[in-house]
Each structure stands twice: as structure tokens, then as C-alpha cells.
Design goal:
By secondary structure, this protein is α+β, with helices and mostly antiparallel strands. The chain has a domain of 222 residues: FAD/NAD(P)-binding domain. Helices cover 34% and strands 29% of the residues. The strands form four sheets. The chain has an eight-stranded mixed sheet with strand order 6-5-14-15-16-13-17-20, with helices on both faces. A six-stranded mixed sheet has the order 8-2-1-12-19-18, with helices on one face. A three-stranded antiparallel sheet has the order 3-7-4. A hairpin with a 2-residue loop joins strand 18 and strand 19. The protein starts with 5 loop residues before the first strand and ends with a helix.
Length: 376
């Protein structure tokens, strides 16, 4: 018998939608709420490593992910020279297992749609444009009041409400989200035939320039620079700035640059990081995903770690008899050090680039990849 009968999930992103799917499919009553008006997601594309794909297969959406995304098994390293010279083509570690690709690139709103559709299909009650206004806990559960005036009682609240988690604040948890010193330009654009995987350019006037195919017709490309205030730029100025920065990079970048024409497809953000010390729960409310840990995307593990949180927590809630200290202890044994390793390694890669240190990037990536081959 599951440890819970009725669960509220706050936040319909990767962690929240995954938890809702797994719990609802097991026969648990699940309500999934999100304060956004719909399932559209900010951003352009997402890189899903094999350990993320393993969870997506567990969720029953792998076929749709493969249909919408772009799978590849190698990583290219290119020089910031006039030819965009290919320095190395590396076989990527298949962290999800030999029967899954190493990586899939995907358009973020497509992934969001796939996950929410599946949550609804397996019986979760999904409400957008709605969140809670108050949570009141006792030893057995949580009473919630919502912005639409409704109320509900739950055995557990799973807060997957992002980097600036309102629930974290509601619980009185102080956690500093710290900028890393890097800012990233991203663009979503049509995919040229020359782009069939991720290639990374290290060096030149920016820290990193790269791209990832997101489907038969799309890609997202990115340039990582020293973090600065770009908030005053108009969309046209943002497009012009990214095009100017891209002039230092060639090879497939020359094809991408020709397709960078829509100012509404550009966004700029800073890399940030935080890691909440265990425990991530307070009473009958638990934080997962970006609400508990976030790192710069230098290892492309943000969504993967969110999915793993949801998978491990759901497994325990389905297989245990009650929400008790043993359940929480097992959850943190399986999740905390793994998440810490990913956060620390992601920050190490940033630090080497900012400091101009030639660190052992392949060695660090391989060490983390081999850890992630083992299911969480």
C-alpha cells in the first residue's frame, strides 16, 4: 500500500510533472497546480542526457520525446579559428544505458507539452493559472487554500516550484542563489544540415559557443560570456549583440548566423547556483528539482537531476507504508550526494573558464558521466 493517498504537486516543470505522472499512474490521487497560465516554457531548447532519457522512458513518454527531439551519440570540440576546425569527435557516455541515445536535444515547450499531456492521461488533475495562498500542516497532512478559492487536504505536498521557490520561502528556508559570473545568450532558429549534434567552441572572445539540434527543423545555439547587465537592450539590439558575438565562430556557426533573424527568439540570462543542505522537507512538504538544487548548464544536467528527484521520491512513496524518517533518510541517501556532485562539477567547469585555467575538462566530464550511468 502506498505511503500516501492524496498528493499536491506545485509546479508543472520537469520535476513536478514527472512526480505527478509516476504517482498518478500508481493509483494515487494527484493534483498538479502551476501559477503560469499555460504550459509554455521560457527558453529555446533543452539538452537531455541519457540519465534524463532513462526517466522519460519510465514516465512512458520516450516515444514522443524521440519523435519531437533529435538524438545523437557524439560530442564535437571545435577551435575558434576561421574554419571552425573540428579538433575532436568524442563518443559520449550513454548514461541512460546502451539501449538509449547519449543525448537528445528538444524544444522546451514541446517537452513541457509531452509531460503535461501524460500527467493528464494517467489521471492527474492539472490546473494552470492556479497556486496555493496558504499551507497549514499537522502531523498527518497539509491543508491548502488556492487562488481560485478552493481548498484541499493532502498527505504530502511536493514543491517543484523552481529556482525562486515560493514554497521554500513559505517554509522559512533561507537559501542564497548565487550568480556564477557567467551570462548566456540563447537563440532558437532553423537547423542547417551542418548541425547534427552538439559542438562546443572553447575560447575566442567568449567563454563557450555551442549549439544543439532540437528536432528535424530546429536548433538552439548559445554563447556564454562574462555576466553583465543586458536588461536595457531592445529585442533588436539583443539579436544584433548575439550576432556580433557569433562572428568569432565559424564552421556550422556561419550557417546558424544566417538563420538568426527573429529578435523574439533571443534570450539572455545569468548562470546561477544553489544547493539546499539535506533535509529538503519540512514536515509534510518537500522541495525537489530547482527548488532544492540548481547549477549552471555546463554539464547539461538540470532537467536530468530534477527527473531523478521525482523518480526516486515517487518510488519510495509508492513502495513504502508511510511517510516517516526511514523514507526521508533513504531519499537523501539516494539523492543528496549525487546532486551535490553534479552541482560542484558544473561550478568547477565555470571556475576554470573564468580563471583561465586549463583544467581536466574531459576527465571531470567522464567521472560525472560514469557516476550517472548508475541509476539514482
Amino acid at each position: 500500500m502506498p505511503a500516501v493517498d492524496h498528493v499536491l504537486v506545485v509546479g508543472a516543470g520537469a520535476a513536478g510533472a514527472a512526480a505527478a505522472i509516476l504517482l498518478a499512474r500508481a493509483g494515487i490521487s494527484v493534483e498538479l497546480v502551476d501559477d503560469k497560465a499555460d504550459i509554455s516554457a521560457l527558453g529555446s531548447g533543452i539538452t537531455l542526457q541519457g540519465n534524463a532519457l532513462r526517466v522519460l522512458r519510465e514516465l512512458g513518454v520516450w516515444d514522443r520525446v524521440l519523435e519531437h527531439g533529435f538524438a545523437f551519440d557524439t560530442l564535437g570540440l571545435r577551435a575558434p579559428d576561421p574554419a571552425g576546425t573540428l579538433i575532436a569527435e568524442l563518443e559520449d557516455v550513454k548514461t541512460g544505458g546502451a539501449d538509449l541515445p547519449a543525448t537528445v536535444g528538444m524544444y522546451r515547450p514541446d517537452l513541457a507539452t509531452v509531460l503535461v499531456d501524460q500527467a493528464k492521461a494517467v489521471g492527474a488533475k492539472v490546473r494552470f493559472g492556479t497556486t496555493y495562498t496558504a499551507l497549514r500542516q499537522d502531523e498527518a497532512g497539509v491543508e491548502a487554500t488556492f487562488t481560485d478559492g478552493s481548498t484541499g487536504r493532502y498527505d504530502l505536498v511536493i514543491a517543484a516550484d523552481g529556482v525562486r521557490s515560493t514554497t521554500r520561502t513559505e517554509l522559512g528556508i533561507e537559501l542564497a542563489t548565487v550568480p556564477t559570473g557567467m551570462g548566456i545568450w540563447r537563440v532558437f532558429a532553423p537547423r542547417p544540415d551542418s548541425v547534427t549534434r552538439t559542438d562546443l567552441f572553447y575560447g575566442g572572445p567568449s567563454y563557450i559557443a555551442g549549439y544543439c539540434p532540437t528536432g528535424a527543423d530546429g536548433l538552439y545555439a548559445y554563447i556564454v560570456e562574462r555576466a553583465q547587465d543586458r536588461s536595457g537592450l531592445t529585442p533588436d539590439e539583443q539579436l544584433a549583440t548575439m550576432r556580433e558575438l557569433s562572428q568569432a565562430y565559424h564552421g556550422p556557426w556561419d550557417d546558424i548566423r544566417e538563420r538568426m533573424t527573429d529578435p523574439d527568439r533571443i534570450n539572455y540570462t545569468w548562470f546561477e547556483s544553489h544547493l539546499l543542505d539535506a533535509p529538503w522537507h519540512r514536515g509534510r512538504v518537500v522541495l525537489i528539482g530547482d527548488a532544492a538544487h540548481v547549477c549552471p548548464p555546463t554539464l547539461a544536467q538540470g532537467a536530468a537531476q530534477a527527473f531523478e528527484d521525482a523518480s526516486v521520491l515517487s518510488d519510495l512513496l509508492i513502495s513504502r507504508d508511510g511517510v516517516d524518517d526511514e523514507l526521508w533518510s533513504t531519499f537523501y541517501e539516494r539523492r543528496f550526494e549525487r546532486a551535490r556532485t553534479v552541482v560542484d562539477a558544473s561550478l568547477q567547469l565555470c571556475g576554470w573558464l573564468i580563471d583561465g585555467v586549463r583544467g581536466d575538462v574531459p576527465g571531470l566530464m567522464a567521472r560525472v558521466a560514469h557516476l550517472l550511468e548508475i541509476p539514482a
